[in-house]
């Protein structure tokens, strides 16, 4: 399992959410990340999901 980091921000840069979770693959992590964003109504906020290697899997400004 690999550890991924999801963060969401207000437009002014204030951190709203920061969460880490594990997944087997980048695709699985993207699905989990989107589900978390939808659950917390953060899909339209600035957010990013980074892999352990630093690759951006999800990004929205």
Explain how this protein is built:
With 61 residues, this protein is of the alpha+beta class. It has one domain. It is 23% helix and 44% strand. The protein contains one helix and four strands, in the order ββαββ. It has one helix spanning 26-39; strands at residues 2-9, 15-23, 46-50, 56-60. Strands 2-1-3-4 form a four-stranded antiparallel β-sheet, covered by helices on one side. A hairpin with a 5-residue loop joins strand 1 (2-9) and strand 2. The longest helix is centred in the middle third of the chain and has 14 residues, at 26-39. The radius of gyration is 11 Å and the shape is globular. It starts with a strand and ends with a strand. This is YhzD-like protein. Pfam families: YhzD.
List the helices and strands and how they pair.
Elements: E1 2-9, E2 15-23, H1 26-39, E3 46-50, E4 56-60
Antiparallel strand pairs: 1-2, 1-3, 3-4
Work out the helix count: 1
Number of domains: 1
Order of strands in the sheet with most strands: 2-1-3-4
How many whole angstroms does the radius of gyration measure?
11 Å
Helix/strand class:
alpha+beta
Strand content: 35-45%
- The parts where pLDDT drops under 50 for at least 5 residues are none
What is the helix/strand order?
Answer: EEHEE
Average of pLDDT? 97
The major sheet is characterized as:
4 strands, antiparallel
Fraction of residues in helix: 10-25%
Strand tally is 4
**Overall 3D shape:** globular
Q: How far is the N terminus from the C terminus? A: 28 Å
């Amino acid at each position: 399992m690999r550890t991924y980091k999801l963060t969401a921000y207000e437009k002014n840069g204030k951190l709203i959410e920061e969460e880490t979770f594990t997944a087997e693959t980048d695709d699985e992590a993207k699905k989990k990340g989107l589900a978390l964003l939808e659950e917390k109504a953060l899909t339209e906020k600035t957010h990013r999901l980074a892999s352990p290697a630093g690759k951006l899997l999800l990004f929205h400004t």
